[in-house]
Design a protein that fits this description.
Layout lengths: L10 H12 L5 E3 L1 H9 L4 H10 L1 E8 L5 E9 L2 E10 L3 E7 L1
Length: about 100
């Protein structure tokens, strides 16, 4: 994995990076807002991990205001459609911003 954030990123490139990083669930960081939203919507940590590891990009990638590439990932999990908004802290970790 290159440490330099690319200036352009296709959905396929983003998905490859996400899959590579998400293979180790320690790289998936669920921030407090996403934890609260997950609890409100009865979405478990395991459902979030499955969404990040196996989901498909439904929106993005685009550069967010923090300089990270961001995507929406969707996956049907436990009979429900789960969406995770994920920021890629390039070569370091995947930050789950919110989930619904």
């Amino acid at each position: 994995m290159a440490d330099v954030v690319p200036l352009q990123l296709t959905a396929d490139q983003a998905l490859r990076m996400i899959r590579e990083m998400a293979a180790d669930t320690n790289n998936i960081v669920v921030i407090s807002h996403a934890k609260v939203r997950g609890k409100q919507r009865r979405i478990s940590r395991r459902q979030i991990e499955a969404c990040v590891q196996k989901g498909v990009i439904s929106e993005g990638p685009f550069m967010n205001m923090h300089g990270n590439w961001q995507v929406n990932l969707e996956r049907r999990s436990a009979g429900e459609e789960v969406t995770c908004v994920v920021a890629i802290e390039w070569s370091k970790r995947l930050i789950v911003v919110t989930t619904f």
